[in-house]
C-alpha cells in the first residue's frame, strides 16, 4: 500500500513538473520573432560576456557594478554600438526581455518542447551571448548542459528563415577556455591542456557551422579570434621574459590558426576576424622581453590607453571587459568585415562618428 502511494506521489509530481514546463512563460513579446524584414542584414551572436549587452538590467540590475562601473549608463558593448550607429543596416532583432532559467530550458529541450534563450536577460533578440559562456556552451552537446546557444538560436532562425538567407552569425567564443591557461601558455605552448582547449573549441565551432548550414546554407558565419591575455593590464607585472613572451605568442597563434583554418575551408560562407592583430595594430604589444610597451589611441581629444578603469580614457573597464572606446573602435572595424562576408552595402563607420559617439552626446542611455 505504501509503495502504491509513493508511486502515485511520484507520478503526480512528474505530471505537475511536465505541466509546469509546458506552461512556463518566456516573456517573448508578441511579434518579436516575425518583426518586419527590411533591407538591413540580420546578425546573430554566439558568445560570452564579451558580447552580452551592458544595458541588460536583468543580469546586471541597477546599482550593480559588475559591468560598466560608475559610467554604466554610457558604457556600451560592441553590439550596442552597432545598433546605435548602424541600426538601419544591421538588424540584431528588437530589444527584448526574454529567456528561461537554465534548468527549465534544459528540461524543455529534453522533452522536445524547445528551451528558448537561456538564461533570461534583456538584450537584442538574436544575441545569445551570456556571461561565463565557454566553448561547451556553443552546441551544449554534453548531457545536462543548460546553455546551448547554437541549437536554440537555430530554432529561432527556423521561425523566420527568409531573413537568414543573407544573414550573418558571429561566433565570438573561447575566451573563458583560454584566458585561464595563461600560466601554462607561458611555460609550454604545446602542453596537453593547450592542445585540448584548441581542439575542443575548433571542433565545437566546426559543428556549429555545419549545423547552421545544414538548415540555412546561405547564412554567413564570422568567427572571431581570441585575444592575448598578456595584454590585459592585470597581468603587466608578470611574464616579463623573452621565453614567456615567445611561448604565449606561439600559443595564441596556434589558437587563432585553428579558427582561421575553419574559414579557409569555406571562404565564401565563413570568415575569420583576427581580434588580436586588430588590438596590436591599435594599441601595440609587449616588447620581446615581455615589458609592456603600449601606445595611446586618439579618439578626438580623448587619449585611450591600455589600462583599466571606469573612465573613457581606459581601453578596459575595472572588471576587465572592454570599455565604450574599445567597443566603438571594434564596431567600426567589424562593420567592414560584415560587409565583406555578407556582400551587403553597409556604410563604413567614420572616425568622426566614433568621436561623436564616445566623447559626444549622441549615445542614448537606453536601448
Write up what this structure looks like.
It is a single chain. By secondary structure, this protein is an alpha/beta fold. It has a domain at 43-92 and 169-359: 3-Layer(aba) Sandwich (Rossmann fold). It contains 12 helices and 12 strands. The protein has helices spanning 2-23, 78-86, 102-110, 136-139, 149-159, 175-178, 182-187, 192-215, 242-264, 275-283, 324-342, 351-359, and strands at residues 41-47, 90-91, 95-98, 121-124, 168-172, 220-224, 270-273, 284-286, 292-294, 297-299, 302-308, 314-316. The strands form 4 sheets. A 5-stranded parallel β-sheet has the order 2-1-5-6-7, sandwiched between helices. A 3-stranded mixed β-sheet has the order 10-11-12. It has a two-stranded antiparallel ribbon with strand order 3-4. Strand 8 (284-286) and strand 9 form a beta hairpin. Helix 8 (192-215) runs parallel beside helix 9. The relative contact order is 0.13.
Give the N-to-C terminal Cα separation. 60 Å
Give the uncertain stretches in residue-range form. Answer: 10-24, 363-367
- CATH fold category name of the domain at 43-92 and 169-359: Rossmann fold
Principal-axis shape equals globular
Order of helices and strands: HEHEEHEHHEHHHEHEHEEEEEHH
Q: Give a short account of the largest sheet.
A: 5 strands, parallel
CATH architecture classification of the domain at 43-92 and 169-359: 3-Layer(aba) Sandwich
Overall radius of gyration: 22 Å
Strand content: 5-15%
Number of helices: 12
What is the level 1 CATH name of the domain at 43-92 and 169-359? Alpha Beta
As a percent range, the share of helical residues equals 40-55%
| Overall strand count | 12
The structure class reads: alpha/beta
- Arithmetic mean of pLDDT: 87
Sheet with the most strands: spatial strand order? 2-1-5-6-7
Keywords: Hydrolase
Protein name: SGNH/GDSL hydrolase family protein
GO molecular function: hydrolase activity
Organism: Variovorax humicola
Amino acid at each position: 500500500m505504501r509503495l502504491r502511494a509513493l508511486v502515485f506521489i511520484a507520478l503526480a509530481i512528474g505530471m505537475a513538473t511536465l505541466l509546469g514546463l509546458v506552461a512556463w512563460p518566456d516573456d517573448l513579446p508578441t511579434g518579436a520573432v516575425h518583426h518586419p524584414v527590411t533591407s538591413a542584414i540580420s546578425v546573430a551572436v554566439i558568445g560570452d560576456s564579451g558580447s552580452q549587452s551592458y544595458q541588460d538590467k536583468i543580469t546586471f540590475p541597477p546599482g550593480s557594478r559588475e559591468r560598466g562601473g560608475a559610467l554604466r549608463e554610457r558604457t556600451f558593448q560592441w553590439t550596442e554600438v552597432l545598433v546605435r550607429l548602424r541600426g538601419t543596416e544591421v538588424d540584431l532583432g528588437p530589444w527584448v526581455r526574454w529567456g528561461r532559467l537554465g534548468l527549465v530550458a534544459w528540461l524543455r529541450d529534453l522533452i522536445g518542447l524547445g528551451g528558448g534563450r537561456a538564461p533570461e536577460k534583456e538584450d537584442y533578440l538574436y544575441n545569445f551571448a551570456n556571461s561565463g559562456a565557454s566553448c561547451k556552451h556553443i552546441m551544449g552537446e554534453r548531457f545536462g548542459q543548460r546553455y546551448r546557444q547554437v541549437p536554440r538560436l537555430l530554432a529561432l532562425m527556423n521561425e523566420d528563415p527568409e531573413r537568414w538567407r543573407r544573414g550573418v552569425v558571429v561566433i565570438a567564443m573561447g575566451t573563458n577556455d583560454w584566458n585561464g591557461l595563461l600560466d601554462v601558455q607561458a611555460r609550454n605552448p604545446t602542453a596537453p591542456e593547450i592542445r585540448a582547449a584548441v581542439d575542443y573549441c575548433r571542433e565545437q565551432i566546426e559543428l556549429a557551422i555545419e549545423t547552421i548550414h545544414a538548415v540555412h546554407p546561405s547564412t554567413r558565419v564570422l568567427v572571431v579570434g581570441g585575444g592575448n591575455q598578456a595584454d590585459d593590464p592585470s597581468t603587466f607585472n608578470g611574464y616579463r621574459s623573452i621565453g614567456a613572451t615567445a611561448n604565449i605568442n606561439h600559443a595564441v597563434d596556434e589558437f587563432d590558426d585553428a579558427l582561421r583554418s575553419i574559414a579557409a575551408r569555406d571562404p565564401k560562407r565563413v570568415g575569420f576576424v583576427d581580434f588580436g592583430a586588430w588590438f596590436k595594430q591599435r594599441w601595440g604589444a609587449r616588447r620581446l622581453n615581455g615589458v609592456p610597451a603600449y601606445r595611446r589611441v586618439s579618439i578626438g581629444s580623448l587619449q585611450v590607453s591600455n589600462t583599466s578603469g571606469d573612465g573613457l580614457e581606459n581601453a578596459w573597464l575595472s572588471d576587465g571587459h572592454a570599455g565604450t572606446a574599445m567597443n566603438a573602435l571594434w564596431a567600426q572595424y567589424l562593420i567592414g568585415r560584415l560587409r565583406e562576408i555578407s556582400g551587403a552595402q553597409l556604410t563604413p563607420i567614420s572616425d568622426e562618428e566614433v568621436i561623436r559617439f564616445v566623447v559626444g552626446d549622441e549615445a542614448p542611455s537606453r536601448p
